[in-house]
Design a protein that fits this description.
The chain is mainly alpha-helical. Helix content is 71%, strand content 5%. Helix 7 packs antiparallel against helix 8 and helix 9 packs antiparallel against helix 10.
């Protein structure tokens, strides 16, 4: 009798914890602590539930690896499909936060494998929501509204939590496609519904979405109050991932409000976070903010250091994007669906064989063997051909800039280093040209990012024909490009740079739907006797580029030792501080 009473009490406590996790997380964590010492006296099913709830709390606290360890343990203890589905789903969430996308898809595959009946509405709805979450985290935004809408359609009025989550993902999708006014209205509706129905955490997420929507609409005074309120809400739940995100948005908002002290305070909070993959995107934004702030304060060494960090995080984001693409392609081969098809084919074959005589069976088995062998060889050939084609496609994608069609930063620098080694080994010259489009932010702000993308593609297309086959043309930043000229001296580099400058200035912009002038500033640096790699050439060309900016833009400057003079360095710093953004 005592064991039955204890079991009943545990069941009641675990049920209460499940409800509190969505309304009062600190209370749920306290309840978990009260029964943690009695873990060994629980039944296997109760132990599994306890580990699932503790794993979920660890996710909120940003302790993703600990969450994965606990959720993996729970899988061996649980038999209930609903609770197993929760374990797999939370595990997928933790893997996404750690950027382990292949493991995230594997966990998602196990959860989808639990759906054995087509009329199991609850599991179907939960799986649709988890798919929406997974695709949102992977950046596959076109799939998010599809699955969120499916989940919403399957929800009854009593399924308040799932309605909240569905509305949230539909709101997030509007933000991701840059429909900011619609996003604000949908986030506002989501917050009102979830707050009034007892799901404050989702309401705080919607509140942050309202703040970000106002920020993107250039309404920072409205944005800051929403973001501060959401931050307080996240702190009450100890939801570390969203706390970090709110700080990053507040840094950007205060910078727009020109409250530089608060902008730096929130940005420094982000920079003090650990350098794990879940913080890469946040640190990219924070380092960009701090670079601007230090430039405005004439602290140019710190500005340069933060700018360098921004480029490092940008490369990590690019590498992560490649990982997402590869994981998504790999997930197209659904192991569970393949196993189900093989099982059905085997059942059909057994039924057919059972209806034949001994003589017919021998003949059929021989024929089947030949058919399967030929089919298997044919299918293997198709897989090898497709795999080879996909591999070549991904290799091209990894090297090319998707917008302009020229080499990206990583591929351009790698090829440039190889050509540099070859040229210097043979005693040849080498020249680096860096150029940056003038007032590009003004084009984006005035005519929209679509016009900005048109400008970038048009500039790349206009210059391709002027680049020799043996030269390197790469996009190395937002509006910054590099041209690497092996076996060319500075005079040749100046000639090429001036030709490119004139070509850019001559671009007709009327086809973009607007009338404006495109110009660029160029910095040129040639090989010096003590140069052992491309880095010194890039650094000198970058200094020359900044000098070109200070001279009024739309000009070409060759690096010289005079650029290091104190007076010219002071002029350059004053120019950077007054313009902030080229």
């Amino acid at each position: 009798m005592p064991s039955i009473a204890a079991s009943t009490n545990y069941d009641e406590t675990l049920t209460k914890i499940e409800k509190l996790q969505h309304s009062d997380l600190p209370a749920a964590i306290n309840l978990l602590k009260t029964i943690e010492s009695e873990f060994d006296t629980m039944s296997r099913s109760q132990q599994g539930q306890f580990l699932v709830f503790k794993g979920a709390a660890s996710i909120y606290a940003g302790q993703y690896q600990a969450a994965i360890d606990m959720l993996s343990r729970s899988e061996t203890l649980l038999k209930d499909s609903d609770m197993l589905f929760s374990a797999y789903s939370y595990e997928a969430t933790a893997h996404i936060a750690l950027r382990d996308f292949n493991d995230a898809f594997n966990a998602m595959g196990k959860s989808l494998g639990l759906i054995e009946r087509i009329d199991d509405i609850n599991l179907k709805r939960a799986s649709y929501l988890r798919l929406a979450s997974l695709y949102s985290a992977m950046g596959i935004i076109e799939e998010v509204p599809t699955y969120a809408a499916k989940a919403y359609a399957l929800a009854s009025p009593n399924d308040v939590k799932d309605i909240c989550v569905s509305k949230l993902y539909l709101s997030v999708h509007q933000l991701e496609i840059k429909s900011y006014f619609q996003a604000f209205e949908e986030f506002k509706s989501t917050r009102s519904y979830c707050e009034s129905n007892g799901y404050p955490l989702i309401a705080y997420i919607a509140l942050k979405g309202m703040g970000e929507s106002k920020l993107r609409l250039n309404e920072p005074h409205s944005a800051v109050s929403y973001l501060l309120d959401s931050l307080k809400g996240y702190e009450s739940f100890n939801f570390q991932l969203e706390i970090n995100s709110a700080h990053e948005l507040l840094s950007e908002t205060y910078l727009m409000l020109q409250d530089f002290a608060k902008a730096e305070l929130h940005a420094q909070y982000i920079m003090k976070l650990s350098d794990d993959s879940s913080n890469t995107m946040l640190k990219h934004g924070a380092s960009r903010m701090l670079a601007k702030l230090n430039a405005q304060n004439k602290q140019f060494e710190q500005a340069y250091e933060y700018s360098r960090k921004e480029q490092q995080y940008n490369q990590l984001i690019f590498d992560e994007s490649k990982m997402k693409t590869l994981a998504y392609q790999a997930a197209q081969f659904n192991a569970n669906e393949q196993s189900r098809e093989i099982y059905l084919l085997n059942k059909e074959r057994e039924l057919y064989v059972s209806q034949q005589t001994v003589k017919e069976r021998e003949y059929t088995n021989m024929l089947m063997f030949i058919t399967i062998l030929l089919g298997g060889l044919f299918f293997l050939g198709i897989l090898l051909a497709v795999g080879h084609a996909q591999k070549r496609k991904f290799m091209r994608m990894a090297r090319m800039d998707a917008l302009t069609g020229i080499l990206n930063r990583g591929a351009g620098q790698e090829l440039g280093e190889n050509l540099f080694v070859q040229a210097t080994a043979r005693g040849g010259d080498f020249c680096v040209i860096l150029f940056d489009l003038d007032l590009f932010k003004h084009i984006n702000d005035s005519y929209g990012h679509g016009t900005g993308d048109w400008v970038l593609k048009k500039v790349a297309d206009s210059l391709k024909s002027y680049i020799r086959n043996g030269d390197v043309f790469a996009r190395i930043g937002g509006e910054e490009f590099a041209i690497l000229l092996p076996y060319a001296n500075e005079e040749k580099g100046m000639e090429v740079a001036e030709l490119c400058r004139a070509r850019i200035e001559a671009i007709e912009t009327q086809h973009s739907g607007h009338k404006f002038v495109i110009t660029a500033s160029f910095g040129v640096s040639g090989l010096m006797a003590d140069d052992l790699s491309l880095d010194p050439l890039f650094h000198r060309a970058d200094m020359a580029l900044y000098a070109a900016k200070s001279l009024g833009r739309n000009t070409v400057v060759r690096y010289s030792e005079a650029l290091k003079c104190d007076q010219q360095a002071t002029d350059l710093r004053r120019y950077i501080a007054s313009t902030s953004i080229s």
